[in-house]
Amino acid sequence: GNSVTQMEGPVTLSEEAFLTINCTYTATGYPSLFWYVQYPGEGLQLLLKATKADDKGSNKGFEATYRKETTSFHLEKGSVQVSDSAVYFCALSRSGGGADGLTFGKGTHLIIQP
Amino acid sequence: EAQVTQNPRYLITVTGKKLTVTCSQNMNHEYMSWYRQDPGLGLRQIYYSMNVEVTDKGDVPEGYKVSRKEKRNFPLILESPSPNQTSLYFCASSFSRGRQPQHFGDGTRLSIL
């Protein structure tokens, strides 16, 4: 079946530090991969996506590369800010076989300290 | 403004009292879906709908019903709520199919006593 594994945290970093949140997946077929971000009290917002192997998604200084050989989609940012504090979810799309929608990881709580 | 609107945002109720959480989108999306978010479990899909009058079960459909009579609306119905349905619920929509990026509502926090 489909599954997504990501570090749960909390992950605590100082402002301007380098960020990596690991995400690996198991899937049948060729899913699209997503990172969503959830700020306190809000719904999920799409951060970035990649639809095929070797695609790089990027947005707001974050980036992630679809690595089919390692089944990974790690999220990185070179210099984090306090405003990046949120919960980050890695997700994959699934379709066919009677299923359609997103399979999410459990989320990684990121805390950035000034 | 493109948005997915859920109501209510918060609800405290008692076991067995039927409730409906409404979801409406203004983007003419064909695909809509409901998820629940629980600590340590992430988000899990309850039901989805590919189009009007087309609905299907997700990963955790037990105890829930949905309907899709109009393209813009996708209500979630709990006919006899139980405490294990206490959770944070999100409605989402996308242009077509689950492969597309989904737009999420702000969530509905349900407490079933």
Outline the structure in words:
- The complex is a heterodimer of chains A (114) and B (113).
- Chain A is mainly beta and 114 residues long.
- Chain A has strands at residues 3-6, 11-14, 19-21, 23-26, 33-38, 44-50, 56-59, 62-65, 75-77, 86-96, 99-104, 108-113.
- Chain A contains no helices and 12 strands.
- In chain A, strands 2, 5, 6, 10, 11 and 12 form a 6-stranded mixed β-sheet that branches. Chain A has a 4-stranded antiparallel β-sheet with strand order 3-9-8-7, with no helix packed on it. In chain A, strands 1-4 form a two-stranded antiparallel sheet.
- In chain A, a hairpin with a 5-residue loop joins strand 5 (33-38) and strand 6 (44-50).
- With 113 residues, chain B is mainly beta.
- Chain B is 0% helix and 50% strand.
- Chain B is built from no helices and 11 strands.
- In chain B, the strands form 2 sheets. In chain B, strands 2, 4, 5, 6, 9, 10 and 11 form a 7-stranded mixed β-sheet that branches.
- In chain B, a hairpin with a 3-residue loop joins strand 4 (31-38) and strand 5.
- Chain B starts with a strand and ends with a strand.
List the SSEs and their pairings.
The complex is a heterodimer of chains A (about 110) and B (about 110).
Chain A: E1 3-6, E2 11-14, E3 19-21, E4 23-26, E5 33-38, E6 44-50, E7 56-59, E8 62-65, E9 75-77, E10 86-96, E11 99-104, E12 108-113
Parallel strand pairs in A: 2-12
Antiparallel strand pairs in A: 1-4, 3-9, 5-6, 5-10, 7-8, 8-9, 10-11, 10-12
Chain B: E1 4-7, E2 10-13, E3 19-25, E4 31-38, E5 42-51, E6 54-57, E7 65-66, E8 76-78, E9 87-94, E10 103-104, E11 108-112
Parallel strand pairs in B: 2-11
Antiparallel strand pairs in B: 1-3, 3-8, 4-5, 4-9, 5-6, 7-8, 9-10, 9-11
